Structure formats: structure tokens, C-alpha cells
């Protein structure tokens, strides 16, 4: 069984199409999206529909719930809040009902899938610092946990070691007894100074996890953001992957 696991599309249709194209040669059996389909980019409805058609499991992210009024946005910065408000105006009632129906965590035999973290997943904590990594490993009762949210693809090999993915691809074969927390990075708004979209492949038989990068049409994604009247910074940051 080979899973295609991706996250944080953020309404960037050009990036989502590039990632789905890249997956075509990977013999994927099942796709899982870890949330934040919308917010920031100019094509929230199109991305939502494509993710919904492609994935067997779709998990809600903070921007998805923010767009339907299901999570607090007071901690969002002004650009993120402007994007949430714009996105909320684009979504239909059916889109909103679909988002409201999503879970924030999926648990399988060998893995947990969640947008942000295992500790209070509806509080949208970031797994970045050693204490949060430690707390999440304490809560992990499966070999693997797949997350998104920070837009920084990496593999936490244990409480002390982390492997980053920026400007390269990584592949790990894990042994029985290993436990990994894998951040699959972001399709639509990478933030590790690498503008290429990030996506993950998990082969449950070979016990292998790969994170790969693919370029996409950034110019077109930028043009649409500007034409939509969204904050200019949301277009500019895509070039730098920040
Ligand atoms: Fe996100």
C-alpha cells in the first residue's frame, strides 16, 4: 500500500496540479490531505473540489475551519485574516458544509494523521521546538505521525534528531520499533526558503517514507492572487518560499 500524503495547499491550484502530476509516476493507492486546503491562494473552491475528489481522507486545518467560522482567528496576522475573510466570501454553502464535516485527526493501525499536533489538535500548536517535539512523542502510540501546519517539511527521527528537506529530497526506511513524526511540508506555500511544492509518499510494505519537491507555475499563482485583490505579500512570498 502506497500513500500520497500532502498538506497546506492553501488555494494554490497551480501547485496542487503540479503535485498531483508528480504523484502519477509513484503508484499511489490512496491519497490523504492533512488540511489547510484554503486560505492565502486565489483558488480555494477549485482546490477544495480537487482534494475532495482525489483523497480518501481529508483532515481539517486551521485555515479551513477559520473560513467557516469554526476556529478563532484573533491570533492570525492581518494578511492571514484578510485571506480568511476573502476565502469565506468565495465558498458556497456546500463547500462550507463539507469543511464543517471534516475531522481533525485520522487514526490508522500504523499511523496518526493530524494537521497540527497531537497535543490538543484543535488548538493548532506548532511542532517546532524540542519541548513540543518531546510532548508529541510522549502522546504518539503508533509508529508514525504525519503532520503539516508549519509548512516546513522535515522528519523528527526521535526527540533529539530532525532531518530537514529544503532543496533536496529525502527517503527513510524505518525499522520495527522506530517512531517518526513526519511533517510533509506545504503544497501551496512552502516556508523553508525553497519555493518548490512539498509532498510525501509512504510505502507501508517497504516501510519507506519519502518527501519530494516539485516546481510549479508560481507566476500564474501570483497573478491570480493580485487580480483577486488579496494582500500583495501573499504573492511575493511564493517566489522565496517564505
Ligand atoms: Fe497552513
Can you summarize this structure?
By secondary structure, the chain is an alpha/beta fold. The protein has helices spanning 13-23, 44-54, 62-67, 78-90, 93-100, 130-139, 218-227, 232-240, and strands at 2-6, 30-33, 57-58, 105-107, 111-114, 144-147, 154-156, 162-164, 170-173, 180-183, 197-203, 208-214. 32% of the residues lie in helices and 21% in strands.
Separate helix tally? 8
| Sheet of most strands | 6 strands, mixed
| Gap from first CA to last CA | 33 Å
Q: Whole-number radius of gyration? A: 17 Å
Helix percentage:
25-40%
- Number of distinct beta strands: 12
Q: How would you spell out the order of helices and strands?
A: EHEHEHHHEEHEEEEEEEHH
General form = globular
Under the CATH scheme, the architecture is 4-Layer Sandwich
CATH top level assignment: Alpha Beta
How many structurally independent domains?
1
Structure characterization notes:
This protein has 242 residues and is α/β, with parallel strands linked by helices. The chain has a single domain (2-131, 164-240), classed as Purple Acid Phosphatase, chain A, domain 2, CATH 3.60.21. Helices cover 32% and strands 21% of the residues. The chain is built from eight helices and twelve strands. The chain has helices spanning 13-23, 44-54, 62-67, 78-90, 93-100, 130-139, 218-227, 232-240; strands at residues 2-6, 30-33, 57-58, 105-107, 111-114, 144-147, 154-156, 162-164, 170-173, 180-183, 197-203, 208-214. It has a six-stranded mixed sheet with strand order 3-2-1-11-12-9. A six-stranded mixed sheet has the order 4-5-6-10-7-8, covered by helices on one side. α7 (218-227) packs antiparallel against α8 (232-240). The termini are far apart. The model has no long low-confidence stretch (mean pLDDT 95). Fe (ii) ion binds next to loops.
Amino acid at each position: 500500500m502506497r500513500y500520497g500524503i500532502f498538506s497546506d495547499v492553501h488555494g494554490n491550484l497551480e501547485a496542487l496540479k503540479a503535485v498531483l502530476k508528480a504523484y502519477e509516476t509513484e503508484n499511489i493507492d490512496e491519497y490523504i490531505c492533512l488540511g489547510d486546503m484554503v486560505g492565502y491562494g486565489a483558488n480555494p473552491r477549485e482546490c477544495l473540489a480537487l482534494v475532495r475528489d482525489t483523497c480518501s481522507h481529508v483532515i481539517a486545518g486551521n485555515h479551513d475551519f477559520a473560513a467557516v467560522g469554526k476556529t478563532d482567528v484573533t491570533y492570525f496576522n492581518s494578511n492571514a485574516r484578510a485571506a480568511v475573510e476573502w476565502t469565506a466570501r468565495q465558498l458556497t454553502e456546500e463547500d462550507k458544509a463539507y469543511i464543517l464535516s471534516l475531522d481533525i485527526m485520522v487514526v490508522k493501525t500504523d499511523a496518526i494523521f493530524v494537521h497540527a499536533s497531537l497535543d490538543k489538535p484543535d488548538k493548532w500548536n506548532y511542532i517546532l521546538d524540542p519541548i513540543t517535539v518531546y510532548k508529541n512523542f510522549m502522546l504518539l502510540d503508533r509508529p508514525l505521525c504525519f503532520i503539516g501546519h508549519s509548512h516546513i517539511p522535515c522528519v523528527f527521527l526521535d526527540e533529539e534528531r530532525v532531518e530537514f528537506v529544503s532543496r533536496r529530497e529525502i527517503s527513510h526506511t524505518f525499522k520495527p520499533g522506530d517512531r517518526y513524526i513526519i511533517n510533509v511540508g506545504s503544497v501551496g506555500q512552502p516556508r523553508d526558503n525553497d519555493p518548490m511544492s512539498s509532498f510525501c509518499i509512504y510505502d507501508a510494505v517497504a516501510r519507506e517514507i519519502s518527501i519530494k519537491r516539485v516546481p510549479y507555475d508560481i507566476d500564474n499563482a501570483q497573478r491570480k492572487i493580485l487580480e483577486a485583490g488579496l494582500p500583495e505579500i501573499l504573492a511575493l512570498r511564493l517566489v522565496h518560499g517564505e
